[in-house]
Amino acid sequence: MIYFLLCITAAVLIAISIVFYYQRNRENKQRLIRDRPRIQPSKTTSTFVTKPIASNSNADAAGGADISGHWHMANQKSAILVVDDQPAIRMMLTELFTSHGIEVYEANNGTVALELFEKHKLHCVLLDLRMPDTDGIEVLREIRKLSAEVPVILITAYADPEKMEDAEKLGISKCITKPFDIMELKEEVLRLLKQYAKQSDGEAS
After folding, report:
1. Which pLDDT score, from 0 to 100, does residue 15 have?
2. Distances from the Cα of 19 to the Cαs of 14, 16, 25, 88, 113, in angstroms?
3. Pair 101, 57: CB distance under 8 Å
C-alpha cells in the first residue's frame, strides 16, 4: 500500500513539474517579446572589418532592412547560424530573422555549431564567445578552416582584449557586446548578407 501511494505521489509530482516547465517557457517567451523594445544598445561595441569591400551607400540606405533584391535574384535563400548557449537569445534571434525570410539554424554549443556549418550552406554566423563545451575563438578557428569568407559576428558579454585580438586575426565582421540593440544587430546582419552575396557572385563570374 505504501509503495502504491509513493508511486501515485511521484506521478503527481512529475505531472506538476511538466505543467510548470511549459508554463515557465510560455511566460519567458511572452516576457521576451514584450521587453524587446527596451533592449539598449551597447556602448562598448567594437568593429573589426575582415576586408574592405566597396559598397553603394545610397543602395545600402535604401535597402538596409531588405535583402530581397540582388540576393533572391540568384534564387538563393539566405541562411545564418546562431550559436549561443542561452535558449532565450536563440529564440529571439530566430524569430527576428525568420520573419525576414532568412533560414536560421541554432546551436547551443560549439560542437553542434561546427556540425551545422559543415552540413549547410551558411551566409553569416552569430557566434557567442563563451560556451559550455568550448571557447568561441576555437569555434571561429575551425570555421575559418572551412571558409575564410563567411561573415562572422562575435557576440560576448566579456570583451577580453586577448581574445579580441585573436578574433581579429582570424577575421570577424563585428564584435557586439551584451546587452545589444536587436535592431542594430538586424541591420548589420542584413548588410553582411547583401555584401556576401555580391562578393560570391563576383567570384563566380
Report:
1. 58
2. 9, 5, 10, 19, 31
3. no
Block means of pLDDT (10 residues each) for the chain, 205 residues, are: 65 60 55 44 34 34 40 64 95 95 96 96 94 87 95 87 90 91 94 88 63
**pTM more than 0.70:** no
Contacts of 37 (CB under 8 A, 6+ apart): none
DSSP, res 84: -
Give the residue from 174, 177, 122 showing the smallest Cα distance to 113: 122
Which cell is 171 given? 577575421
Crossing angle for the helix pair 161-170 and 136-146, to the nearest 10 degrees? 10
Q: What CA–CA distance (Å, rounded) separates 60 from 51? A: 18
